[in-house]
Amino acid sequence: MEMRYTHPILPLAWRPLLDDASFCVGKSNIHAFQWVHKEQWPCQHVNIYGPKDSGKTHLGTLWAKKCNAVWLPCPHSSFINSQGRYVLDVNINSLDEIETLSCLEAVQTLNAHCLWLSLRPVHLGNVQPALRSRLMTFLCVEIQEPEDSLLVEVLKKAFRDVGLIACSQILYFLMKRMDRSFSNIRDVVEKIHYYTLKHRANLSIPVVKSALAWKSYPQRIPGE
């Protein structure tokens, strides 16, 4: 009897390219991209906010490399040094008022600068008025949901990050049928990537349909 061995697919880490050339720039994110490349800021705090998976971490990494900035786990005065540069990726509803206020005081006193990354503007979180009034002085830059041309480029990069080359036919096949959002791109590409590994399949439209369980084409978005 022929013996067959099957092996589980190992969960591979998603390690996207985070260099300057691999950031996809479009109308929805160009202002945020420009701010992380400015030589000087007119203020000590810039808050880049936008949807999940919209490239905020990528922008934070670019600014950190450019300015030799340090990623902080949370806002706290003990982390702040004179004229330092810091990046904070925060949940705006989980900010500790006392620690955050002490951090802001240290930044002001020591002439440091901070790049804050969040889903929404930091001052819209569940914070007390004293802290909110300080957070409202931040320069806020929004990343919006992507336009179609940017979505195609981000989708192409997401495939490239996991070692897959998607031709234009596959990209536009997905574009016409998937939810147009940054967050959905990661989910779609992960499912397709896992399917190609499990079945040792090359990337193709039939493979995409099988990976996403699309037995028939989903309805096109109204107005297309």
Secondary-structure blueprint:
Elements: H1 30-35, E1 45-49, H2 56-67, E2 70-72, E3 85-89, H3 97-109, E4 113-118, H4 129-135, E5 139-142, H5 148-161, H6 168-175, H7 182-199, H8 205-211
Parallel strand pairs: 1-4, 1-5, 2-3, 3-4
InterPro entries: P-loop_NTPase
Task: Give a quick set of tags describing it.
224 residues, alpha/beta, 2 domains, disordered C terminus, P-loop_NTPase
Describe the structure.
The protein has 224 residues and is α/β, with parallel strands linked by helices. The protein has 2 domains: 113 residues, Rossmann fold; 64 residues. Helix content is 38%, strand content 10%. It is built from 8 helices and 5 strands, in the order αβαββαβαβαααα. The chain has a 5-stranded parallel β-sheet with strand order 2-3-4-1-5. Helix 3 links the parallel strand 3 and strand 4. Helix 7 crosses helix 8. The protein is elongated and about 60 Å long. The N terminus and C terminus are likely disordered.
